[in-house]
Amino acid sequence: MNLEKMLELYREDMKLTPNEERVARTVRLSGEIFLEREQERMLNYAEFLKTQFFVLRKRWWLYQCLLLAAAYLVLGYMQEEVYAHRSVGVAGVLFVVLIIPEMWKNRTNCSMEVEAAAYYPLRQIYAARMLMFGVADFCIAAVFCAGLRGRLHFTMADLLVQFLFPMVVTACICFGILCNKYAVSEMVSVGACLVWSGVWWMIAMSEQIYRAVWLPAWVCLFLAVVLLLAAVSYNAVKNCGKCLEVGLAAAGRE
Q: How far apart are CA 99 and CA 248, in angstroms?
């Protein structure tokens, strides 16, 4: 027997025939073990909120505090009380505008694809951001309103009409423009809010228009915009990924 035949017989003897059933079983068990190990390291929702809190840049909350503090000082030095009361709405508009850079920073930094690949979907990420900004802004605005009542003798009706109403309308504009399926620039939302600020200033400074609306009507208008804010906020969480889908579809066609 020559060497070539010996090598051929050796290769035939060493040739292994895999058992497909056992291979499939090994793959299945490996996948189950991997998922089980990963599940042990998965964040719960409380830990997820904590992580999102650390991801948020707190400087925008600082800017909001500084804005309202500056408005508080300026309003206190106004000679005409009526101008102080009517000007506080502008501070409310700018207060909401300052949430735009942080709330929609994933669009600016083009990181929506990364967030979409995470375990927690974009809906929960947006909901977490809105929750934390809502709690923080509520506390900041509450302190500001308490200061206005104590120093400038604002009534609850004044705070409702002059500060809270334009602020909630501004929030509706922000969420309505930015949270849709089209990739609208943040500057468009900021511009719309500034236009609304000018419109509100003209309404507040027009004694004839301002006095024509009675307090119950203002309360009804405020409740209506609160419901509208709830609707656009829900729409923002529900459809937050649609602008990404539209962008990917457009890129695919190109």
A: 27
The residue segments making up the domain with residue 51 are 45-253
- The whole-angstrom separation of Cα 251 and Cα 254 is 5
Closest among 170, 165, 144 to 210, alpha carbons compared: 165
Same domain? 14 vs 88: no
Q: Model confidence over 149-187: pLDDT tens digits?
A: 877 778 888 888 888 888 888 888 888 877 666 666 677
Report residue 185: phi and psi, to 5°.
Answer: -70, 150
pTM for the structure as a whole: 0.68
Whether residues 26 and 136 share a domain: the answer is: no
User: What secondary structure does DSSP assign to 16-48, as a single string?
Assistant: ----HHHHHHHHHHHHHHHHHHHHHT---HHHH
Distances in Å between the Cα of 3 and the Cα atoms of 7, 8, 11, 15, 186 are 6, 9, 12, 18, 78
- 91/94 Cα distance (integer angstroms): 5
Q: For residues 91 and 87, what is the distance between their CA atoms, to the nearest angstrom?
A: 7
Q: pLDDT for 75-108, tens place per residue?
A: 877 766 666 777 788 888 888 888 887 777 766 6
